Amino acid sequence: MKSLAELEAIRQKTLSRINLRKEDESEAVRVVVGMATCGIAAGARPVMLGFMDEISKRGLNHVTVSQTGCIGMCRLEPMVDVYLPGQEKVTYVHVTPEKVSRIVAEHIVNGRPVEEYTIGATEDK
Amino acid sequence: MDIYRAHVLCCGGTGCTSSGSSQIIERFEEKIKEAGLEKEVKVIRTGCFGLCEAGPVVIVYPEGTFYSRIKVEDVDEIVTEHLLKGRKVQHLVYSDHATHEQNANKGLADINFYKHQHRLALRNCGVIDPENIDEYLAFDGYKALEKALTTMTREEVIDEILKSGLRGRGGGGFPTGLKWKFTYNSQADQKYVACNADEGDPGAFMDRSILEGDPHAVIEAMAIAGYAIGASEGYVYVRAEYPIAVKRLQIAIDQAKEYGLLGENIFGTGFNFNMFIRLGAGAFVCGEETALMRSIEGKRGEPTPRPPFPAVKGLFAKPTMLNNVETYANVPQIILNGADWFASMGTEKSKGTKVFALGGKINNTGLVEVEMGTPLRSIIYDIGGGIPNGKKFKAVQTGGPSGGCLPVELLDTPVDYDNLIAAGSMMGSGGMIVMDEDNCMVDIARFFLDFTVDESCGKCAPCRIGTRRMLEILERIVEGKGEEGDIEKLENLANTIKATALCGLGQTAPNPVLSTLKFFRHEYEAHIRDKKCPAHHCQKLLQYVITDKCRGCTACARICPAGAISGNVKEMHHIDTAKCLKCGACIEKCRFGAIIKV
Known about the structure:
The structure holds two protein chains of two kinds. Chain A is α+β, with helices and mostly antiparallel strands. Chain A contains five helices and four strands, in the order αβααβββαα. Chain A has a four-stranded mixed beta sheet with strand order 2-1-3-4. In chain A, strand 3 and strand 4 form a beta hairpin. Chain B has five domains: 6-115, Glutaredoxin, CATH 3.40.30.10; 133-343, NADH-ubiquinone oxidoreductase 51kDa subunit (Rossmann fold, 3-Layer(aba) Sandwich); 353-436, Ubiquitin-like (UB roll) (Roll); 441-530, de novo design (two linked rop proteins) (Up-down Bundle), CATH 1.20.1440; 543-597, 2-Layer Sandwich (Alpha-Beta Plaits). Helices cover 39% and strands 15% of the residues of chain B. A five-stranded mixed beta sheet of chain B has the order 7-8-6-5-9, sandwiched between helices. In chain B, strands 11-10-14-12-13 form a five-stranded mixed beta sheet. In chain B, a hairpin with a 5-residue loop joins strand 10 and strand 11 (366-371). In chain B, helix 7 packs across helix 10 (215-229). Chain B is globular and about 90 Å long.
């Protein structure tokens, strides 16, 4: 028999798993990984798995990870867009699994984009 | 627990299962594994999405892409394109019948079929995995039971249901709270809660979809009801013809027991509640409450006179509270969100929403849930997508064999219990069959009466003999042997049966005849006096003739199985009506539209 607290724990745990099926997305954070041939060849899959891993470790229920096609800047792949509610999208380029935990911690959790990884930092130089 | 970046939801309702969704799910799992995506993508078998016409249905989240009419062969493309590369497979995406608009970049809520709906009883159908209690829990499952047991008195629970204005969704429309209160007031050492899932109306499948898609909602509601009225046992009487519903309900009951949500001392409050399934053998009359309870007891399913009402003397001669599946499905939400929230939806006397099974001559066959008071027109045209093949709407049949047919003039009737009865039909359990200009209303009445005659249990004479006599008259009329005075005889019989039959089945059996007589009397008269069927439906009353559009291509003569068509090449052909079987093969074959029914 489960206690009320145990039931609530199951609720929260399952919610993080099925959150992406909820229709209301106003609060949702979206991480979109470029996964066309170019992205995959440049190593997008480990990056995406890294995001999923980090997000589930931190129990970030409101974050969904999805993929998209090629946006034409194949030389900058793996590229990742992060959408925070009420903010402009931030595009990260040349993302590696090592960079993932910093993006999650600083940007998704604390709301401060990691400037040095963004497309602006790379392209302006 | 692992999280996945994408969920593939595949409908496991009866409709989609019979068009192959199980094989589709298997193929998805296989291909996803092949592509090495098994840690990223999860496949979930859900309950019915409602848009059965477009089945088998597959939805991919987080995008919410709605794929329709998926075949096993399509799975490979969805996996390699959508799941692996993130590109939606445009040609498989659902497109709206009326607008031909694809929802490629829109969510489910933007599709016309769903846009006008208000899904309350069906809120979890197609969203959760019905065989996984954790998913139900995550969508606020069993929170209402927790609230009722730990913070509300029994009287408060009953009061909340009373105030909500919830009425029985099985057809009668009796105030649910009153039923609870009457059973609560009865004194006995043992009381029972029962659920009527013996959904027998032709074309109705609301209850099946709820049990298949969200079985825990019914379990939770029955436990709440048990607490409120003081019952420790609940019975679900469900048709054996619903194997998927039975299986999922049993899985759900077992899971609830394992979590201590059923059984002894629930939440440590000292409340005990156990649930059992009883299978019905497919007798329509067992959906009648007294017959249903006799059947649960193991006796012959025949109605008994009321009073005594079940609230006083029901199952095993103890006070019993019987509600329909859809009624129960509303209960947890009412307890959780309050009576005022529920009462804010619907019309003055009919609160909340109602699920309808749309069928017949309509584009979007399926299951819809709308707020009470939604006009018939909106259900049929906005949600149902209108009549196929450019045909004209003639009537809509509501309430199954106990209901009636409403004509085009009543299309703007807001649907609620009282309006439908005033219009000469009834809400019934929620079957809604749409008919177009090709349907003969006399034959429709005959069809429903044929059903009732077949299903009459035979206990009382008005139903056993009376409906049989009515059917004989109707059969004569559609065969062109109707006589003057038949209509009056039908009316006389109908009124007598209504007044004297023992149970609801018999009392309402004449309704299809009475309502078609009320709105389509001219069709009866045409059959009887002119020996013509205005809809060109009744075979005995029509002839096939070839008009001068005929080019003499001989196609019809070659297809005719009776050899009834003769004529020379490039000359107009002729049908020998004595030989003609009226099979219609020639009409389908003719490319010039030269053959007509008169």
